[in-house]
Design a protein that fits this description.
- With 159 residues, the chain is of the alpha+beta class.
- The protein has one domain: 2-Layer Sandwich (Beta-Lactamase), CATH 3.30.450.
- Helix content is 37%, strand content 26%.
- A 6-stranded antiparallel beta sheet has the order 3-2-1-6-5-4, with helices on both faces.
- α1 packs antiparallel against α2.
- The relative contact order is 0.18.
- Belongs to the free Met sulfoxide reductase family.
- One of its GO terms (molecular function) is L-methionine-(R)-S-oxide reductase activity.
- One of its GO terms (cellular component) is cytosol.
Length: 159
């Protein structure tokens, strides 16, 4: 007998699967850039209705573009600027339903309408951020945030 899953339960199971896939994909690989590249590719393949998935790395007190999937992007973002810079400065996930309502939003891709950005830590210090953009408003919710934060925690084991 098959269990009828609600949309939310199905999403949770799908996220749990992709987190396991990330762990298996990165297991045994020590190259940080390769792991970030595979993590962004995996999320880009897994997530629907996204137009950019990637990393900005914390270097010399600013975020610098790292591995990503999507159109060319802004190369450098100052701490506290835009959604990514705010996530870095506050070291806290930023869940933005409408980027046009976010003070100081940096429009690297005019198609982006909503965004979620999670800090990535290494040895208790800011390493960078995972940035995911969508061409629709209200794309991300608490289920996405919770599971993407778990995805980042798994990634942090390999960077």
């Amino acid at each position: 007998m098959f269990k009828n899953l609600t949309y939310s339960e199905n999403r949770v199971q799908n996220y749990q699967t992709v987190i396991k896939q990330l762990d298996a994909l990165l297991h045994g690989e020590s190259d940080t850039i390769a792991n970030l590249a595979n993590a962004s590719a995996l999320l880009n393949q897994f997530l629907e209705k996204v137009n950019w998935v990637g990393f900005y790395l914390w270097k010399d007190n600013e975020l610098v573009l790292g591995p990503f999937q999507g159109l060319p992007a802004c190369v450098r973002i100052k701490s506290g600027k835009g959604v990514c810079g705010t996530a870095a400065a506050e070291q806290k996930t930023q869940l933005v339903a409408d980027v046009h309502q976010f003070p100081g939003h940096i429009a690297c891709d005019a198609a982006s309408q909503s965004e979620i950005v999670m800090p990535v830590m290494r040895d208790g210090e800011l390493f960078g951020v995972l940035d995911i953009d969508s061409p629709i408003t209200n794309r991300f919710d608490e289920i996405d945030q919770d599971h993407l934060e778990q995805f980042v925690k798994t990634l942090e084991l390999y960077i």
